[in-house]
Every structure is written in structure tokens, then in C-alpha cells.
Amino acid sequence: MPLSARKLTSRIGAVIENFDFEREPDADTVAELRGALNVHKVLAFDGVHLDDAGQERVASWFGRLTTAHPTVPSVEGAARVLPVDSETSKSNTWHTDVTFVANPPQLSTLRSVVTTPYGGETLIANAGAAYRDLPESLRNLADSLRAVHTNKYDYVRRPAVTDAQREHDRLFVSTVYEAEHPVVRVHPLTGERGLFIGGFAGRIVGLSDSESRALLEIFQKYVTRPENLVRWSWSPNQLVIFDNRITQHYAIDNYDDHPRRLNRVTVAGELPTGVDGVRSRQLVGDATHYSPLLEAVA
Ligand SMILES: [Fe+2]
Predict the structure, then answer these.
(1) pLDDT given for residue 165 in this prediction
(2) Which site in 9, 48, 166, 269 is 20 to 30 Å from 178, CA atoms measured?
(3) Rounded to the nearest whole angstrom, what is the distance from the C-alpha of residue 212 to the centroid of ligand 1?
(4) Would you state the pLDDT for residue 293?
(5) What separation in Å is there between the alpha carbon of 23 and the centre of ligand 1?
(6) Residues 6+ apart with CB under 8 A from 192
(7) How would residue 155 be classed by pLDDT, with cut points 50, 70 and 90?
(8) Number of other CB atoms surrounding residue 198 within 10 Å
(9) Is the dihedral of CA 165, 232, 40, 36 positive or negative?
(10) How far is the CA of 219 from the centre of ligand 1 (A)?
(11) Cα 4 to averaged position of ligand 1 atoms, centre (Å)
């Protein structure tokens, strides 16, 4: 039976309504999921009963897995599962996952473990639509730029209050990484161009800090236009997969002190390529323990 994708907005997001996670899919079914992800950028599934191992199994349909994170420890006993836990960090900054390494994950999977009685939604933005929204002159400018992304830049905006937050923040930057990426990335499967910036992008190569900030702010405003967003409300037993090559996301901190926990498993990605064919490169740090350096990935 073909997949049934119910669109959530015109530009991004779909709920897949008839997928059976109990059965191991054949290659055609995985290709169909991949095709839907290429189109919708975000696929959401309800009524999913997976544990950590099951989530790893599902993520591995799309390629080789990364370990949980370059610096933050995994869930105990599950080396490829990162706890996204409000007790340690709320991720309420626009970002693309782990862009401070040269080959960030190609996709992320998030599974609801503890949901909040209200709020706690995740916003996900279509960075391809944002690029197409740019006036031609800004598109041409963006095409020509490269940016340096680092884990030391502004990711954690709240001051650490609890010991758990302090420890998370210390671990997050315990090894410093810097990677240089094109500001416009060409999606290797679709050829679609997207703005590839977000919270880890600190400066633009060749520009001053203030020029970098001003320009990134202009581009970022296009990414976060309401028309480019889907707002996902979490319930128990849900899985969301998003294409980390061409999206950004933001976890809204609007649930007071209620605990919130998602488990994340990411699939390794290739080195991003700009419109000029030049690939990303690692400037500082070695993240090969996190993600293998792959030439090309499905
Ligand atoms: Fe994230």
C-alpha cells in the first residue's frame, strides 16, 4: 500500500498515517519514505511504540548512524541515543543539528518520551523555501559566502541555574569544534538549494563579526518566516524525522518547569557542498568518533 502523507502546511511537514513500524520495510518502502522526506522535509508518525533500540533500527533504514553527540553523553546503554532533556538544556535556539562538525547528520529522528501538559512544541523551518524567498541579489550573495560554525557560539542562551544545566553546558563545549560550510548548501539527493546557517554559524568568512551578524540576521529572518514553519505538538508515542540538510528547528520554552524529554538518533551525513562544488571542512577539532567521514550518502 502506498504511503499516505497528510500535509501539515503548504511548505513543510506531513503526517504519515499508515506506516507499520513492526515490519522491516523493503527497499521500495524505504525509498518511498525517503521520497516523502525529500518533499516534506519533516515526517511525523503517531502511535509509534519504539524503545531506544527500535528507534536506532528505524533510523538505520536511512544510513549509518552517528554516535549520540560529539561531546554530550548518550542515554545509558544506548550509545547512539541522545537524551534531549529539559532538565539539562531546552534547545530554544534556532539551529541545525551539530553543524559545528564538517559532516553534520543528514537527518534526525526524535521520539517523545516525556511530554508536557501544555506547550513544548518543536518548530521546524524549511531552509529551501527560505532560499527561494530571497530576492535574487541576496540569493547571489548567499551563494558566494561561507560561514564558520562552532559549538562555542551562543547555543545555550539561558544562564545555567541548576547543577545539571551547568554540567551539560560544560560538557557541550568541553572540546571546541569549528567547521566551515557554504551558506547555501546543495541537497545531494534533490539538487535543492537551502540556506545552511542557524545558531552555530558564528561568522562569515572574510567579514567582520558585526558584518557577519548583520548578514546572518537578514538570511535567518527568511528561514523563520511563519510561512516556512511547521509547529509540532508532542504527544506520547510519536516519532518525527526531519531532513537536517535543509531545515532548522527550535524547541519552544513555554511549558514552565514541566519535564520534557525526547530521545534523538541521527544518521551520518556527507560533507555539504556549495553551489560552486566546494565542500565543507573541519577547521578545529576531530569529530570522527562521532560521525564517519562519508563521501556520499543516500
Ligand atoms: Fe536540535
Answers:
(1) 87
(2) 166
(3) 23
(4) 74
(5) 28
(6) 128, 186, 246
(7) low
(8) 25
(9) positive
(10) 19
(11) 27
Distance CA 173, CA 190 (A): 34
Distance 20 CA to ligand 1 centre (A): 26
Tell me the average pLDDT of the chain. Answer: 94
166 or 65: which carries more pLDDT confidence? 65
What distance in angstroms lies between residue 292's CA and the mean position of ligand 1's atoms?
Answer: 20
Q: Please, what are the domains in the chain?
A: 4-284 (3.60.130.10)
Looking at 64-78, 145-159, 170-184, which range is the least confident one? 145-159
Task: For cell 550518502, name the residue.
Answer: 297
**Calpha distance 282→172 (Å, rounded):** 18
